[in-house]
Amino acid sequence: MPAIPRPFGVTLLAILHVLQAILLLLGGLALFAARALMPRMMFHVPRLFGGLLSVIGGVLIIVALLDVVFAWGLWSGKGWAWILALIFAVLGILFSLVSLVRGGLGSIVVLVIDAVIVYYLTRPNVRAFFGEAKLATTPTVTQQPAPSTSGGKFCSNCGAPITSIEKFCAHCGAKLL
User: Fold this and answer.
1) Higher model confidence: residue 143 or residue 38?
2) Res. 149: pLDDT tops 50
3) What's residue 49's pLDDT?
């Protein structure tokens, strides 16, 4: 069976996560640099603030590395990446709804994007790429077509006309007998 090609939207999500990882990594490194330069520039800044910068910078770098692993999982069609992407999008929807209730109208854009991601991730071809579903596993038409008087062959699953050399129905994907 040939491998299912990576859907364009999955490629786009993976690339966006790589870009996000680069920005997080740069932010973490910038916080480490600010921590290193701080004693020379500001003598009155307490040590706690410098330590806080180091902790936040370290967390950003760790999150950047995790984001790269997540992008790789999306790129290569790992089932755990599909689940995580779905969880992150649903959480984004929930946080956006809470923000809307609190009066943050800017979260409408995030809400729409996350809703589109959830919709996209649940499409049959995307789920099949991640191994979460098989394409055309259930018949859509249960009624058998009337036998043809012209002698042509028809799919026993959906009734679409078929040729004798086809192994799968071009209309519904069912295996032909």
Assistant:
1) 38
2) no
3) 75
Element (H, E) at 30: helix 8-41
Indicate if 36 and 90 belong to the same structural domain.
no
DSSP helix/strand/coil, 161 = strand
Q: Which pLDDT score is estimated for 141?
A: 52
Q: What is d(CA 177, CA 159) in angstroms, rounded to the nearest whole number?
A: 13
pTM attached to this predicted model: 0.67
How far apart CA 28 and CA 36 sit, in angstroms, is: 13
Asked whether residue 68 falls in the same domain as residue 109, the answer is: no
Interval 3-38: pLDDT, tens: 788 999 999 999 999 999 999 999 999 998 888 877
Which of residues 76, 93, 117 is at a domain's end?
76
Q: Kindly state whether residues 53 and 28 are assigned to the same domain.
A: yes
Backbone angles phi, psi at 17, to 5 degrees: -70, -30
Q: Are residues 16 and 36 in the same domain?
A: yes
Answer for the pair 24, 57: CB distance below 8 angstroms, yes or no. Answer: no
Closest by CA to 81, choosing from 73, 91, 89, 72, is 73
- φ, ψ for residue 116 (rounded to 5)? -65, -40
For residue 52 the two structure tokens come to: 């806080």
Element (H, E) at 166: none
